[in-house]
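Researcher: Structure prediction, please.
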Amino acid sequence: MAADIPVLHPYDLHRQTAGLRGRGPVVEVEITGGVVVRALTGHDVIMEALAHPDVRKEARHWRPWAQGEIPMDWPLISWVAPDNMLTADGDRHRRLRTLVSQAFTPRRVEVLRPRVQEITAELLDAAEAAGPGPVDLKAALALPLPMTVISELFGVAPEHRDALHTLINRVFDATTTPEVAAQTNADMQTFLGSLAEEKAKNPGDDLTSALLAARAEGDERLSQSELVWTLILMIGAGYETTMNLIGNAAHALLTHPEQLALVRSGEASWADVVEETLRWDASIQYLPLRYTAEDLTLAGVHVPKGEALLVGFGAAGRDPGQHGSDAHVFDLKREQKGHLAFSHGPHFCLGAGLARLEGSTALEALFSRFPDIRLAEGEEVPEAPSIVASGRSRLPVVLG
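Model: Predicted structure follows.
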């Protein structure tokens, strides 16, 4: 690889992103597996790309993919190969999105509030009962809350949720070997294919059963491949990103006591905490991938046809051009100028409202119930190894 092309490593993404931004708005970068893509490093260029008619989501526009140069055991294959709305454009994207969008309307999300509060209380009861020692807040709250909510929505039985978490975690893990990546890709399809088969035999009051019913109502409204990949997208995105939102917000407050004091005094709200966390430490830092269907220009930079674009949603959140010279500072009193943590345009995250509800509910309950909560002394808070997501492998705290 050319010496002047930087390599994006799966740790310390914010520091690396600041370096990339210093090189320009569109920067060649090497990612997992030695693949070279063009990283978009600022708010304005991302907004331009998301609105450009020749920037697409279908991998057939990516020259290396079309020419067979990207192997099926590439560690990021689950972000490129899916047959769902994440990798669809135009009418096909609208068709797939419509099938699930009604489940995430503001009214439907609000109906879930009592159940989210109930699950949160149960998890905090269990954490407190575990004793006075350090508690891993990720394992105790940030992971099981969204996993339980999304699993109940889609009808995933409790005994299968740990296995599902393991599979989804591998999708985000940048240290996954090619062999494990290929097996994970196959295992995900088998796992959720089995869920679809079970719900076809024994339908229930869940979204998987609803998707199967929608599939049966039309002539090819939803193929088997589309069904399974839609489940992978909705269940995976429905818990992994919210898990990191809760963990990142809790860590930010525990390392910025002056900001936590603003919430406790009523000068800032829990909604402010969620929005500033989404801006400052977005759950999705880089989303692979979008592709140039024609030669085009982004932020004055020529990008040839057939290139892959790595969209830096986390980079946009700390872009001084959008958020000021103190964009790197966690500040609950700042004037929010619009972040891109949930993307923008046709691919805006369907689950944004649910993520905000879970995040604000969990954080308010946690810090209200345990006013003396603090990070456990002498315990490491390691980053989860990923170029896609920002989160922590563990978040040890003392509840107090």
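Model: Residues 10 and 386 are 4 Å apart (CA to CA).
Researcher: Thanks, that helps.
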